[in-house]
Amino acid sequence: MELYNQTSIKEFMLLGFVKVKQGKSFLFVLFLIMYTICLLGNSLITVVILLNQTLHTPMYFFLGNLSFLDVCYISVTVPKMLADTWVESPSISFMGCAAQMYFLVTLVGTEGFLLASMALDRYFAICCPLSYTRLMSKWTCLQIAATSWICGILNASLHTTLTFRLSYCQSNGISHFFCDIPPLLSISCSDTSVNEAALLTVGVFVGLSPFFFTLVSYAFILHAILNSRQKQQSHKAVSTCISHLTVVILFYGSGIFTYFRPTSSYSLERDQLVGVLYNILTPTLNPLIYSLRNKEVKLAMRSLMIREHSVLERRLCHNN
Fold first, then answer.
1. Nearest-angstrom CA–CA distance, 127 and 177
2. Residues near 208 by Cβ (< 8 Å), separated by ≥ 6?
3. In this structure, what DSSP letter does residue 14 have?
4. Least confident interval from 18-22, 34-38, 94-98, 222-226
5. Is 63 within 8 Å of 46 (Cβ atoms)?
6. Would you call 179 exposed, middle or buried from its count of C-beta atoms within 10 A (0-12, 13-18, 19+)?
7. What angle do CA 217, 223, 226 make, to 5 degrees?
8. From CA 250, how far away is CA 191, in angstroms rounded?
9. Which CATH number fits domain 11-319: 3.40.50.1820, 1.10.150.20, 3.40.930.10, 1.20.1070.10?
10. Model pTM?
């Protein structure tokens, strides 16, 4: 992907922490804790799903994809944010900013489609149980996952190319913790109408469509659950659906707020908070909501731990 720019800017200043005079240590500890939870939780889930044959089903295939994506997603921005809390004038190179934005937008778009795919999988499992195996075959799951990643990559390629063809001749200060589309558009001295039109047009497909598709899927799921005769299981399933919907609304809501409005309305404090919601909080909550409350995942983790413990004991006995 070739980037063109009419300015001599070699780096951008990340101003997210500049106005924070007190509390940087608190933010560092908070972000580090959330990052650690996200890495450990999602990595553990990915490994457990890969190693346990009983979890090689469509639902856990998508959960594994989501966990792997979240590890990549949070690692694009948070390590740099942690380092920047201790720097007086945090900066990022021009190409570094382009790379960070490219991977960030790729992963945001892909996660949106994956969440919609997971909602579709649950809809077929609950509302069409007799046809579930046929509808969600291994080949179908692979196609859906590949399409999600391809859509995310194409979306990021378009926006990164459009954004870094602009001129930045007045300021190189980005009012955020990381490189994202709206703060970069707000400091460009070029006409950004094409970029804003692309954000709105492509965003309908990448953001709004999966969001409404997910909401509709969960609406049908909830309707089917509430009409079920097994009341005890119904209450548990409704609780699970509501927790899933909470994460979905948090992710899509913050993403839509970020990308579906004019850059003239950009606000440092407000948009930093929203950025933290969809960039740090959602990947941290995903393993807790989608997997670690799941009995099958807990049993698989316990089985893996027992197996590893047995292997370790045998090695110690052999060495002795």
1. 43
2. 256, 260
3. E
4. 18-22
5. no
6. buried
7. 140
8. 32
9. 1.20.1070.10
10. 0.85
